[in-house]
Design goal:
By secondary structure, the protein is an alpha/beta fold. Helices cover 48% and strands 15% of the residues. A seven-stranded parallel beta sheet has the order 4-3-2-1-5-6-7, sandwiched between helices. A four-stranded mixed beta sheet has the order 9-8-10-11, covered by helices on one side.
Length: 388
């Protein structure tokens, strides 16, 4: 029996993890953690009866608390901004599935790895902000980071039994999002409603907007660098509209190994949960219709200028990834509220990155840079609004 802690249980990754757990008698849910969605969490508690529950929003925790003694007697409830890290430190589990979106997920990643546990990581921001430190922590404490992002899961699978020193380059695939062929003038004036219509994947709003700008891929370049120790010259982004080839690895002898499958996040989640084993799953594999046409093209950097920011962060190191991620979180939030235009997301990110403080110390110092970048992005958005 493998026990799971599900961080972000009411989000996309969390609900798909629980969907897998429903049909796998070898999985038990030890803990569930959510933000403010206490009613969906209550339904999950009713079904899975976890020993530990966490809610980061204090008001939502107050709503949930009275129901727990009746539904799940003996359940420990962690509350407030530190609840994710608290449950990761206190609960008993084998693997933590981390599906929380944003930089707020970093302390929980640290807490899991400090205990030497397996971290099945969909919270790419943890690695973008503090990748070098998290990888070192995993080595020191005997823990492991198994990526859940479909692309990084694919590369992880392609490298099973291989020496990373034999990698010539990694081909990181991108769908191109909803605006791959949209005229540039229309794309620059896109509304949030249009940007949220991803052609292949069902994801949360921040990730979906990141796919539309290709910022999601820029952050994945940074994540890839930390996970596998690759230089920027060894990473290439390839647009693959069908989202069947999840990524490829090219070795020094010219051999190219690809991991393929239908666009279904349950596949990489299942792989991460059971790693290093491969366990049976009722998930689709090869399909003639889906696999009939596979096309690839280079990314259009005029259309997707944000992509270069990810490579820049790999080259510059220090707090650059942290600053870029924080600025993008604020810019995307402003776009979704119609406070800035679609093309201004890139402008805000680039401007904040150009002024980064250059901190290169502890996780706390990186979190300070994160807070600085958020305020810097807000100020630039306010200034732009005042000038217009």
């Amino acid at each position: 029996m493998k026990t799971l802690l599900v961080l972000g249980s009411t989000g996309s990754i969390g609900t798909q993890t629980l969907e897998l757990a429903r049909t796998d008698p070898g999985l038990a849910i030890a803990g569930l953690a959510a933000g403010s969605s206490w009613q969906p969490l209550l339904q999950q508690v009713r079904e899975f009866r976890p020993r530990w529950v966490a809610v980061t929003d204090p008001a939502a925790a107050e709503e949930l608390a009275p129901h727990l003694p009746r539904l799940a007697p003996g359940t420990d409830l962690f509350r407030g901004p530190s609840a994710l890290a608290d449950i990761a430190r206190e609960a008993e589990y084998d693997t933590a599935i981390h599906g929380v979106v944003g930089g707020a997920g970093l302390p929980a990643s640290v807490a899991v790895l400090e205990r030497g546990k397996t971290l099945a990581l969909a919270n790419k921001e943890s690695l973008v902000i503090a990748g070098e430190r998290l990888m070192a922590l995993a080595r020191e404490r005997g823990g492991e980071i198994v990526p859940v992002d479909s692309e990084h899961s694919a590369i992880h699978q392609c490298l099973r039994g291989e020496d990373v020193a034999d990698v010539r380059r990694v081909l990181l695939t991108a769908s191109g999002g909803p605006f791959r062929t949209t005229p540039l003038a229309e794309m620059r004036n896109a509304t949030p409603e249009l940007a949220l219509k991803h052609p292949n994947w069902d994801m949360g709003p921040r990730i979906t907007i990141g796919s539309a700008t290709l910022m999601n891929k820029a952050l994945e370049v940074i994540e890839l660098h930390h996970l596998f120790g690759l230089d920027s010259e060894q990473i290439e982004v390839v647009v693959h509209p069908q989202s069947i080839v999840h990524s490829m690895v090219e070795f020094v002898d010219g051999s190219v190994v690809a991991q393929m499958g239908p666009p279904d996040m349950r596949g990489p989640i299942h792989y991460a949960i059971h790693h290093p084993e491969r366990r049976p799953a009722d998930l689709a594999g090869f399909d003639f219709e889906l696999f009939r046409t596979l096309t690839f093209e280079p990314p259009d950097l005029e259309r997707f200028p944000t992509l270069e920011l990810g490579f820049r962060c790999v080259r510059e190191g220090s707090d650059s990834g942290c600053v870029l991620n924080a600025a993008d979180e604020i810019a995307v939030e402003a776009f979704l509220k119609s406070q800035i235009g679609f093309d201004e997301i890139y402008a805000v990110n680039r401007a904040v990155l150009a002024e980064r403080p250059g901190k290169d110390g502890s996780v706390e110092e990186l979190l300070q840079a994160d807070r600085w970048a958020r305020e810097c992005a807000r100020e630039k958005i306010r200034s732009a609004a005042a000038a217009s």
